[in-house]
Structures are given as C-alpha cells and as structure tokens.
Specification:
434 Repressor (Amino-terminal Domain), two-stranded antiparallel ribbon, alpha+beta, elongated
Length: 278
C-alpha cells in the first residue's frame, strides 16, 4: 500500500462509477482542478478522504488499494450502513449484499460494480444463481423482471421441519381449483385493509355465491381471510378482510422455477451429495 497510488485508485473508481471529475469535485467541495491533480499523482488532504470514500461508497482502505484481511466489525458496519440508508433504498442495498454473499460462496471476490449495473448489461436476459452444498443451498434470480435471494442452511431434522403435521397434498388440491387460486391472486392485488363481501369474489371471478362462499371458507382455513360481523339497520352482515402474506408470493416464485426451469446461470456450484429432504 502506498499513498502515492491513491490518485490512480480515485481515477479508476471514478471511471467505474461513470462520473466526471466535476461531479466528484462538487460532492467533496473542491475544484475540478484539484481532482485532476490527484489523478495525476497528487494526494488529497487527509480530511477529504472520508468524503471521497462516501462518494464512491467504498472504505478508505479501498481508496488506498488496501486489501482488508481482518473483519472484526464487518457485521456491525453492514448493519449500520443499512440503518443509515433511506428506508426506500434499504432493500436495494440489502440485495447488493446478497449478491456479494452469493459471489463469495461461489469462491470469487465480488465485482466493484453494482448488481444494478450488471442487470442493465443483461438487457432482457434472465439470469439465475445457485450454490448447492451439503451444508446448505442458495437460490437467486438476477434480472429486471424479478429479483430474490434465498439462503437455506442445512436443517438437522427434515422430518420435523417439513413433514410433521403438514398436509401438503390438501394445500395443493385446494389451490388446484382455479377459482381459489385466482381469488388469492386477486385479493393479493387489493389494498390489505379493504373489507369485502362475497359479492366482490362473485363479480371478479364471475362465479356463483355458493362457489364464492366455498372459496372464502378455504382461504379462511389457511388464515388468509378473517371475518367480522357489523350491525347495519337492525341487520347483521358479515364482512371479510384478506390477511396478506408474502408466503403466497414466495410460493409463486418457486413454483415458477419448477415450471420454467432456469437455464442461464451467473454463478452455479453443484457439489451437494446429500439428498435435500433427508
């Protein structure tokens, strides 16, 4: 590591980010000539280093080209970075970390560029990534249509985790009914706090009241619908509220992967020898 290399590193980081000397200068609060001087062998004042590092979203070590070999506070640093990120950008930032984890599990250092830049380079191409080891597995989709990351450490007792008291065949039988499935999709597209009556399902799915009540009964069985009784004009009417859960969206994600098996991989490792369910 040499302080004389910092100008070259700043130049390299700026070009990777796709920004100009003027933009870096305005952010740091110096002239464009000062940035040009750094990139041609000069050295920034010490007090400017944190601001320069913030601009490139890297550590000061990275500015010096130093490879970090000790990670004593990395979890704290990542946690603090997410806490300090605007709420609207936290999931985007967290997905960047997921990408870094996936690349690291693959056995390579993650790229300096963001995953957003990588996705942009793909265009309409759909890419997946998966690490499949005996101590766990990951599944990841990387494209502009859908993004997700799943990490599953190996489970000690698969029977207890997946099968004891769980009736999968009943669930699959229920959701093989088009009206039940379509009702769940439709209700997931509405605002969660909006109450409804069977008339909504009858109208949206073009089904009878009898079938609408059957659909509601099935979704209530899975705690996806709750009911309340309201007295109006001396009569009591039952209203329903849909209880949204991301589990249904996750079910669609992984069902899609079974229906449309991924064929284009960014990272893939299949070293697993153990069965998934034993």
């Amino acid at each position: 590591m040499s302080i004389n290399n910092i100008g070259n590193n700043i130049s390299s980081l700026r070009k990777q980010k796709g920004t100009t000397q003027d933009e870096l200068a305005r952010f740091v609060g110096v002239s464009a000539q000062a940035v040009s001087k750094w990139e041609n062998g000069g050295v920034p004042d010490t007090e400017l280093l944190p601001k320069i590092a913030d601009f490139f979203e890297v550590s000061i070590d990275k500015l010096f080209g130093r490879t970090i070999t000790e990670y004593t506070d990395i979890k704290k640093a990542l946690s603090q970075k997410l806490i300090n990120t605007d709420e609207k950008g936290r999931f985007k930032e967290a997905f960047e970390y997921c990408w870094d984890i996936e690349c690291s599990l693959y056995g390579r250092e993650f790229d300096d560029g963001s995953i957003a830049e990588y996705i942009k380079s793909l265009g309409e191409e759909q890419r997946h990534s998966s690490m499949r080891f005996d101590d766990g597995f990951t599944m990841m989709e990387i494209d502009s249509r859908l993004q997700y990351f799943l990490l599953v450490p190996e489970c000690k007792n698969k029977q207890a985790a997946f099968f004891n008291g769980i009736n999968y065949t009943e669930l699959f039988a229920d959701f093989s009914d088009n009206d039940i499935f379509n009702a769940c999709v439709m209700l997931n597209q509405r605002e969660n706090d909006k109450a409804f009556t069977p008339n909504l399902i009858m109208k949206k799915l073009n089904i009878t009241k009898e079938k609408a009540l059957k659909v509601i009964a099935v979704l209530k069985k899975y705690n996806m619908i709750r009911s309340t009784f309201i007295e109006i004009d001396d009569t009591t009417e039952e209203f329903f509220k849909f209880i949204a859960t991301p589990s249904f969206t996750a079910l669609l994600i992984f069902a899609k992967e079974i229906i449309e098996s991924p064929c284009a991989w960014t990272c893939f490792s299949e070293s697993r020898k153990k069965p998934y369910l034993i």
